[in-house]
Automatic annotation (TrEMBL):
Residues 282-301 have a biased composition (Low complexity). Residues 56-242 form the Splicing factor cactin central domain. Belongs to the CACTIN family. GO terms for cellular component: cytoplasm; spliceosomal complex. Residues 355-492 form the Splicing factor Cactin C-terminal domain. This is Splicing factor Cactin. Pfam families: Cactin_mid (PF10312), CactinC_cactus (PF09732). Residues 13-24 have a biased composition (Basic and acidic residues). The lineage of its organism: Eukaryota, Fungi, Dikarya, Ascomycota, Pezizomycotina. Residues 1-48, 265-312 are annotated as: Disordered. One of its GO terms (biological process) is mRNA cis splicing, via spliceosome. PANTHER family: POLYGLUTAMINE BINDING PROTEIN 1/MARVEL MEMBRANE-ASSOCIATING DOMAIN CONTAINING 3, SPLICING FACTOR CACTIN.
């Protein structure tokens, strides 16, 4: 008989091997392995668990800043690549483009097959080929890359370039007594340091520091000048090592496509012998979103050019504070349904400001967007569909005008709507199927001139919605005016 059935018949008289066992002991089962008693896991502290899941406000702020800096750096590298490919590069672009071949953080989708064949000058040649003004500009650009970069090798690359820029600027300045002392030993310094490798220079640096700390009777001026120059030669050696790695990476990329050219590149130093003419023209003008320098037409009958581009003005504000604000806004890019907008026009009735004799007037820089989209009114719903949509229309604007150097920082800039030919708000002089336009004029105090743009004249939506909400503020040198037009709903 089955033992289990027999146990049911016997009831309490059934013989059990584990009758007298401890109830907390493992249960005996002849057909299974001995089961271990279940242990309740220790209770977790709710506060500890929450701390592991959530970041503090300071940590969230740090994470946001880090992500934003990473995005800005990525966009800056991408713009440098484009300018080099289009043969309108600035000095900083050549330096960034050369580093991309060994940059582990580069985006593979941004690579171009012909990049390896582009001839670029060596970093040291770029620095040596600039005048004082261009060199100061390059130093600021290199500093921006150095502050945003987190990769150790890339950061070392930009730090070495900063040292070379500083040394070159020092040599371009008029020499005082200290400069003449350095010049007197320049030939000896170059003879001693130029042939040495980076490891030998680091060893020599330790020896010189030990000699200066000792009580020996030495020529202190000579050894201090040698130690100061040693940092420059260490930077040159660092760049030399990185250039060798860049050359090797380019040779490997080219070997799969053209072995003969790869061999020729391997036999050379990996960089072009000559440096492009970097001293002519304004190097900052190419930082604009497009290469076109044609100003927007001033005709009042022309439609608002949503795809217009920025025009370079002779008195445009190129201060470093403005450049920082402008570059940050450009790095944000253009979102879906947005286009760059620069329908700038002459300010009507403008006169020479009273403060023009005291401050040099300059035009503020800006980065504006126009919001474009479809209007699905009854007519468009009847004649169009999503596969064959109607023409896009202007749905709003986002103005960002930069005033970082206002003399009177208490008085904020403002704006004013100007309707020509005596037309009032709500009136329309436009023919059927057309929309009225007006001028929006931005007004600020010295040293900034007024600027105006032609926009569509429709009623604004002043709601506080997150996406479509109205915004008019002046903070940290940026005048922001964001608005969209009211949607008109027709009822039967």
């Amino acid at each position: 008989m089955n033992p289990d059935r027999q146990a049911m018949i016997d009831g309490s008289k059934s013989p059990r091997k584990d009758r007298d066992r401890d109830i907390t002991a493992p249960r005996y089962d002849s057909s299974n392995r001995i089961a271990k008693p279940y242990r309740q896991p220790p209770p977790r502290n709710n506060a500890t668990a929450a701390a592991g899941r959530y970041l503090t406000q300071d940590q969230q702020s740090e994470q946001f800043i880090a992500d934003e800096d990473k995005f800005v750096l990525k966009q800056a590298k991408k713009k440098s690549d484009i300018r080099v490919r289009e043969q309108r590069a600035r000095p900083i672009d050549y330096l960034a483009f050369g580093l991309r071949f060994i940059d582990p953080d580069r985006d593979a989708f941004d690579d171009d097959e012909d990049d390896v064949e582009i001839q670029i000058p060596s970093p040291e040649a770029v620095v040596q080929g600039l005048n004082e003004a261009k060199l100061k500009e390059l130093e600021e650009d290199v500093q921006s890359y150095h502050s945003l970069e987190h990769n150790p090798r890339n950061k070392e690359y930009w730090a070495a370039l900063l040292t070379l820029c500083s040394d070159r600027l020092q040599k371009l300045k008029p020499q005082g007594p200290e400069g003449r002392a350095v010049t007197s030993v320049a030939s000896d310094v170059d003879r001693i340091l130029s042939p040495k490798t980076l490891e030998q220079l680091e060893a020599l640096e330790r020896q010189i520091k030990a000699k200066l700390r000792s009580d020996e009777a030495i020529d202190t001026d000579y050894w201090e000048a040698l130690l100061k120059s040693l940092l420059v030669y260490k930077s040159k050696a660092t760049l030399k090592n990185m250039c060798a790695v860049i050359k090797e990476a380019r040779v490997e990329m080219l070997r799969a496509r053209d072995p003969e050219r790869a061999s020729a590149l391997e036999a050379s130093d990996g960089f072009s012998g000559g440096v492009p003419d970097l001293s002519s023209g304004s190097s900052k003008a190419v930082t604009k979103p497009a290469a076109s320098t044609t100003a927007a037409p001033a005709s009042s009958s022309a439609p608002p050019p949503g795809t217009a581009r920025f025009a370079s003005a002779g008195n445009e504000d190129f201060s470093q504070a403005t450049k920082a604000l402008y570059d940050r806004e450009v790095a944000r890019g253009v979102g879906e349904g947005e286009e760059i907008f620069a329908a700038e026009e002459a300010v009507p009735g403008i006169q020479k400001p009273l403060w023009a004799d005291k401050y040099r007037p300059r035009k503020p820089r800006y980065f504006n967007r126009v919001l474009m989209g479809y209007e699905w009114n009854k007519y468009n719903q009847t004649h169009y569909d999503h596969d064959n949509p109607p023409p896009k229309v202007v749905q709003g604007y986002r103005f960002n005008v930069f005033y970082p150097d206002l003399i009177d920082k208490i008085k904020a800039p403002t704006f004013k709507i100007i309707r020509e030919h005596g037309r009032r708000k709500g009136e329309s002089f436009a023919p059927a199927g057309k929309e009225d336009t007006c001028l929006i004029r931005f007004i600020a105090g010295p040293p900034y001139e007024d600027i105006a743009f032609r926009i569509v004249d429709r009623e604004w939506d002043y709601s506080a919605k997150k996406e479509r909400g109205f915004k008019s503020s002046f903070d940290k040198g940026i005048l922001q005016l964001h608005f969209q037009f009211k949607k008109v709903y027709y009822r039967k």
